Task: structure prediction
Amino acid sequence: MTPLLAVENLRTWFYTRGGVIRAVDGIDFSIPLGGTLGVVGESGCGKSVTALSVMQLIEAPGRIEDGTKILFDGEDLAKLPEGRMAKIRGNDISMIFQEPMTSLNPVFTVGDQIAEAVKLHQSVGSKDAMDRAVEMMELVGIPSPAQRVQDYPHQLSGGMRQRVMIAMALSCNPKLLIADEPTTALDVTVQAQILELMKELRERLGMAILLITHDLGVVAEMVDEVAVMYAGRIVERGPVADIFESPQHPYTEALLDSIPLLGMRYTQRLKAIRGVVPSPLEWPEACRFAPRCDYVFAKCLAEDPPLLRVPPQESACWLCQSGRRVPRTAEALV
Amino acid sequence: MIAADVLLKARGVKKYFPVRKGILKRTVGQLQAVDGVDLDVFRGETVGLVGESGCGKSTLGRTLLRLLEPTAGEIEFDGVDVLRLGGSDLKGMRRHMQIVFQDSVGSLDPRMKVSDLVGEGLRIHGIERKRRDEVVIEVLERVGLSAESAGRYPHQFSGGQRQRIGLARALVLRPKFIVADEPVSALDVSIQSQVLNLLVELKHDFNLTYLFVAHDLAVVGYISDRVAVMYLGKVVELATSEELFRRPLHPYTMALLSANPEPVPGRKRQRVVLQGDVPSPINPPSGCRFRTRCPIAQPICAEVEPLLEDHGASHGAACHFAGTPIEGTPALTG
Result:
């Protein structure tokens, strides 16, 4: 079965005065129809640029390099003229962002904004579009939707605004929803509400989800497959349970070890990753994680590791050359 | 612990902010950010303040240092009534109580060199230049920054390093007490763990007492000996970190715990999804402030305000039905 979205050798570079920023530098991933993929990583790893690249929303000085394929439903989005892409965006693929306040227009009611999205993509009249807006707001759990459509964004709380964004994104029954840090700006009890909502809507509507987040907790709860990004590359990917139970890449392992779990105390020292993320202007030669890695050896500094197969995962680490490795984390997490 | 061990003692602390409207800026209401908090902080311990945005945790932290003038209440630090102090007495007291902020960009003057930023406190307290520079370098090295950092400006540092500068600034006067206001919230997880480890080391080496303010329950629980959970300006539960996680008594704490997304797939807890949003602190609900979102609220909760009562093992909870297990997950609603 062909996947819904297949990205091959995605490279998105930014040509700045300071040099070429290779924000995303050769990544492959795919999502099956109705599947979920979480892309995790820390600031600057290229996860948001990945999302924007799929949406073809990269602006100058950024550029998706030649040789990139973004196959969606049989079409290569990287080669599509903007007119055709505009039809796909919002219709077949929708996106929700971290900060709903900046994504909503403050001078229009939320009902108008949802209805606008509906009218833009479906040939319906204003009345029908507004009815659809009310219906969508009900779907995302906004109480008394018939009244709330007349509210302006500032009259809603952060959680309600994110619900409006979801209503808008889902109003045209997209096949793929891209969610870029959808709950990062929200309080934890509201985050729980939104995550529950997204899970429920996915079950009901069956759309595929590409979830971009820095929060490993959110990933653990929301997706089936995970891709871990570091310095513009995918360093490990595989089923969520395997990644968390037995991470194969030292970066994944270190990331998991550095988070305090509920109930952990300061008598147990946290594992920290030494140093800082390298500058995207000059990624380290060979393995990009090598300068911060606890397991580094000669080959890591000489040759760039490809994604090696260690079923059910893939890991870009030379340690995986001779099969799966046993990470330290294994016992600690039980 | 014996009474003499109390470093900071707060009784009935309130901080209201006037809400002004119209061209005459008449006061039309009071925003009750902190509304009657009793808290003892013992010498050498870390007390965590946890809660969602707007619960008053940061305001309480600042009021205890008298960076904000309390509306009512008593604050005693090291046996001295802080609210009676003025002029040079207050300045002398301030040496012993310092604060570290979340926003390391906003809290460090971009035009000052690190040596001046860190040495500012020493200058104010009349330490001469030569001695100042020595102490600054000593402290910088102690927080993991090189001596050369002293000559650089804040923008030349990463977020984690800027947070270390903030810590050096607080430490340079050898205080007894530090309020750390969301010190790791803006940092990536790998850097967050570096700073948390540093905080634990420094506390030990400098005999510090911390008030650690944050919204992340796992982080607060990790670093704190005791945790106070706040909701709408009140402390609703107070217990040792172990007690709180093992035996949460207040339904809000239970909800917070269950909403915390943990990076462990498959570890599914009974989810307590709270309904709606936090009410406005300008016009808080009568009786128990949590009752509008509480899954086990009864008529009495609207009439009688529950007080923070001891439930054994120095575990306080402000709930008429403290310890009642919450059954079932409420249906998905707004």
